[in-house]
Specification:
The complex is a heterodimer of chains A (188) and B (500). Chain A is built from 9 helices and no strands. Chain A is mainly α and 188 residues long. Chain A starts with a helix and ends in a 5-residue tail after the last helix. Chain B is 72% helix and 0% strand. Chain B starts with 14 loop residues before the first helix and ends with a helix. Classes of the chains: A mainly alpha (188), B mainly alpha (500).
């Protein structure tokens, strides 16, 4: 089996596993795990599934995706929707939003990111990663100071835990990228 | 090693590069003059020689502060680009995009101040911008902060392009900074000082802009959702981390002009050395962690941060400053330097840097800060450092480039008179601030007590003389930059473009 096919199948498997009721109920128990585990795994499933896109289709998409910016824009706008606590909340109680989550996160975040990443130059990647770090810090700070619960399904202490974890993620990413830029090997 | 040829071939500005460089420099010098006149208006008002309404005073102060910081960054970015492009492959689109974003940001800021009546100064310290007390709306504050964000994004774009080019050539930022030669190894004598300084600026200022991007967006969220109260001390820390580094980086970009140009005027090579590498590496770290010296009066600040602010203040400026000044003096000694307008400005800039950091080091000491913190001592320091230090570096390059057409650096009698006005006016102007600080005259005040007025008058006279010199420079430099290239340059331009 070709490597790309294998990776695509891994993506589909990851997607199916996330759909399984026991897994869903376990992950969706806390706000932290829904946002950081479920959404991340769904994005990764899309990333892997993108390997199944045939080369001629990829070439066609690339023509509309100079420097990967169009794909990055699509992924960013979709991510903004799923960063809204209301959307995460609704995905637990509204079937339509649940379906939207399991479809749009892999297909409109994971796939475009995978197709765009190889096309991005240092500047676009740098901007994306720096903004990712800044967003982690901002969201972490927001969840920590929010005076009220932002989700009906989760308690305030849960969102504060998410805030702390987001700040830690921001810190780790910042340290990693900083170290890599200073002393690592970088493909420009 | 930097070239000893006065106008080397690889520095020639042709086509779009020339247009971009001229845009940067003519915009910058025009803005400097306008913003200086705004500053003079405020000093005249404090001296009771000219009446300015109190609300207008704070608008002018906001415009002067934001504008000067931005323009200093704009012009020194052009200095960095001008020299760095010789050593690494920079993209012109990034340089131009930075200019466009700067101008868009400037429009937001000007509209916020003069139409929206914003007057909470360039430091936009939370929660002041959103509490305009009826003088300005929260949307105006949002527009002001959005303008700052745009300018920051433009800078970041330029830095990322420069980082990509540097990494492509040197492997990573550490190697570009020269850390592999800190303890051992033979230093490559051709490792450009411009790359070392640019790398330091990219590292420090990108971190500062990251902090700014976080606090600005959080402040914008607070504008539209006031129930989301920020921790004011954390917001202040991030604001000063961004603000201090942003303005401090200007001298580190500007000094590239001294490294590159001074040897050409002295005729002596200005070699890279291990102390040079050490000083830039140390300053990279120190510049990042020195900002707490702005928060010494914040009693709630963790003590270790205040102590760090004081200790690093004593040491942050020294490594690069010492190695640069010592290196420059060594380069100057018995060199038979050609005293032309650019070389005069280079030496003045080193004096401005050297003398300008002394008041900062004094004020960066907790016991002194207790009495100096909110006095005119502080504007005394940064005007010294910026007017006689940073701006002199930029003027040195501007004058140098205006001489490229005839391959002769400018040195007319009018230039000498203009330089004298700039030097004398500048010294009187900054010493008036320092004298006022010594007398504990409060800063940022529209209305002054009777006892404070003598130093205001002295400052106004100095600023007037300085601006007269600056107006002459603005006209002289703008005409010089706009004049079409000499025939040899034009031929060179067409042959180079046809070969591409």
């Amino acid at each position: 089996m070709k490597r790309t096919t294998l990776l695509g199948l891994v993506g589909i498997a990851l997607w199916v596993v996330n759909m399984l009721p026991p897994v869903r109920s376990l992950i969706e128990t806390t706000m932290t795990s829904q946002m950081l585990v479920q959404l991340t795994m769904l994005t990764m499933s899309g990333w892997f599934v993108a390997h199944l896109v045939p080369l001629h289709v990829r070439d066609h998409i690339d023509r509309w995706n100079a420097q990967g910016i169009a794909g990055l824009l699509l992924a960013t706008v979709t991510s903004m929707v799923w960063m809204l606590p209301r959307m995460m909340d609704s995905s637990l109680s509204d079937g339509t939003i649940t379906v939207a989550k399991f479809v749009t996160v892999p297909l409109l975040i994971g796939v475009p990111l995978a197709l765009s990443w190889p096309l991005m130059g240092f500047v676009v990647r740098g901007f994306f990663l720096l903004e990712a770090v800044a967003t982690a810090f901002r969201l972490g700070w927001l969840y920590l100071i929010s005076p009220e619960r932002v989700c009906v399904n989760y308690l305030i202490d849960d969102q504060q835990v998410l805030g702390i974890v987001m700040l830690c993620i921001g810190g780790v990413l910042f340290a990693y990228f900083g170290w890599k830029l200073m002393f690592g090997t970088i493909r420009t | 090693m930097a070239s000893l040829t006065l106008y080397p071939e690889d520095e020639r500005l042709v086509g779009a590069s020339r247009v971009a460089f001229n845009l940067y420099m003519i915009t910058a010098i025009g803005l400097f003059v306008i913003l200086m006149i705004i500053g003079l208006t405020m000093r005249l008002s404090q001296a009771m020689w000219f009446e300015v309404q109190v609300d207008l005073f704070y608008k002018l102060l906001s415009m002067h502060g934001t504008g000067m910081v931005g323009t200093a960054a704009l012009s020194t970015t052009a200095v960095m680009w001008y020299f760095l492009r010789k050593y690494v492959n920079l993209h012109l689109w990034a340089f131009i995009t930075n200019y466009v974003l700067f101008m868009l940001g400037a429009v937001c800021i000007i509209v916020a101040i003069f139409i929206g009546d914003y007057g909470a100064l360039w430091t936009f310290l939370y929660p002041l911008p959103v509490n305009g007390m009826g003088l300005w709306s929260s949307y105006t504050a949002a527009l002001f902060m959005a303008g700052n964000l745009l300018i920051g994004v433009g800078s970041l774009l330029f830095y990322f392009d420069a980082a990509a080019a540097i990494i492509k050539k040197h492997g990573n930022l550490g190697r570009a900074l020269g850390v592999q030669w800190l303890f051992k190894g033979t230093i490559d004598p051709n490792h450009p000082k411009a790359v070392v300084a640019s790398t330091m600026v990219i590292i420090a200022n990108s971190l500062g802009i990251l902090a700014g991007a976080v606090v600005l967006v959080m402040s914008l969220i607070n504008v539209f959702y006031p129930d989301m109260h920020l921790d004011a001390l954390l917001a202040k820390n991030l604001t000063y981390w961004f603000g201090h580094m942003y303005i401090n980086a200007t001298i580190y970009m500007g000094v590239i002009a001294v490294y590159e140009l001074l040897p050409r005027y002295t005729g002596k090579p200005y070699a890279i050395s291990r102390p040079f590498i050490w000083s830039w590496s140390a300053s990279t770290l120190f510049v990042i962690i020195v900002y707490p010296h702005h928060l010494m009066m914040d009693f709630a600040q963790p003590q270790w941060l205040t102590i760090m602010g004081q200790v690093i203040s004593w040491s942050a400026g020294f490594p690069v400053f010492l190695v640069t000044t010592f290196g420059a003096l060594q380069n100057l000694h018995r060199s038979g330097i050609k005293w032309k307008t650019p070389s005069r400005f280079m030496i003045l800039s080193l004096f401005g840097w050297a003398a300008g950091i002394v008041p900062a080091i004094l004020d960066g000491t907790v016991r002194n800060n207790l009495v100096m913190h909110n006095t005119q001592w502080v504007p005394g320091h940064f005007h010294f450092y910026l007017v006689l230090g940073v701006l002199s570096m930029v003027l040195a390059l501007m004058f140098h480039v205006t001489g490229s057409r005839t391959q002769t650096p400018p040195n007319s009698s009018a230039d000498k008179i203009g330089f004298s006005f700039y030097l004398i006016g500048g010294l009187v102007f900054v010493l008036a601030f320092l004298a006022a600080g010594h007398m504990s005259v409060a800063r940022r005040m529209a209305t002054h007590l009777e006892q404070w007025i003598p130093t205001d008058k002295m400052g106004s006279i100095g600023a007037t003389i300085l601006i007269l010199g600056m107006i002459y420079f603005a006209v002289r430099i703008s005409i010089g930059l706009l004049r079409s290239p000499s025939s040899s340059q034009a031929t060179g331009a067409s042959s180079s473009s046809s070969s591409q």
